[in-house]
Amino acid sequence: MQSAGGSADQRRPLFGGAMSAVVPHSATDVSDLREIPDNQEVFAHAHTDQSLIVELVEFQAQVADEDAARYHFEDIAGTNKALEPGAFEVNGVVAVSASELCLSECNTAWMLTGTQCVSKFNEQARNTVTLHLGLLRLPQFSTDVLITFNDPQSISPDSSSASALGTHKQPWTVLDFQHLLRTLTLHNPGLFG
């Protein structure tokens, strides 16, 4: 299978090989640069300010499946200090058919698209970011798997991210995000304890 970058897809081991997925071209493993929590795999595009995060979080049993993606999106908005009115918006949520996924253990899956106005590194400058969120629910493991694609749309000139402007070489697309989500595979259920 060919990726958007034109090279053959290669699965990348995640969480010490307990999972794997096809990660898009130009991906830098952020754990090579700084410490990342054990429940996350974070990839940054080598030439843009885009990032992809695969995160294992506690299954939210009190949240209905159809509301869970929005719940996690709002939780991320809180972490990003983007909860004030107008700072975040959900543009759409769609269910993903289990037949489209490699993760056969998944109970239900959802994709959400929204925007958040966020700052990096506690800066005052705020950037508008399109956030694509994939949610794979695994109640049998008490786990929700979040896949987040941060795709900056407008970057403040005062942001540390402004230096990435104008260098967009083959940016990732929503198709790259969807391919990662669909190819995510579990190899060792011991990952969940």
State the end-to-end distance: 33 Å
The Cα radius of gyration reads: 16 Å
Mean residue pLDDT: 86
Question: Percentage of helical residues?
Answer: 10-25%
Number of strands: 10
* Major pleated sheet: 7 strands, antiparallel
Helix/strand-derived category reads mainly beta
Major beta sheet, strand line-up = 3-4-5-9-8-7-6
Percent in strands:
35-45%
Order of helices and strands: EEEEEHEEEEHE
Low-pLDDT residue spans: 1-7
Number of helices: 2
* Silhouette: globular
Structure commentary:
Pfam families: Mog1 (PF04603). This is Ran guanine nucleotide release factor. InterPro entries: Mog1, Mog1/PsbP_a/b/a-sand. This protein has 193 residues and is mostly beta strands. It is 13% helix and 37% strand. The chain has 2 helices and 10 strands; from the N terminus they run E-E-E-E-E-H-E-E-E-E-H-E. The chain has helices spanning 65-79, 174-183, and strands at residues 11-14, 19-22, 27-29, 40-45, 51-58, 88-96, 108-118, 127-138, 143-154, 185-186. The strands form 2 sheets. A 7-stranded antiparallel sheet has the order 3-4-5-9-8-7-6, with helices on both faces. A hairpin with a 4-residue loop joins strand 8 and strand 9. It is globular, with a radius of gyration of 16 Å. The termini are far apart. Mean pLDDT is 86; it is low at 1-7.
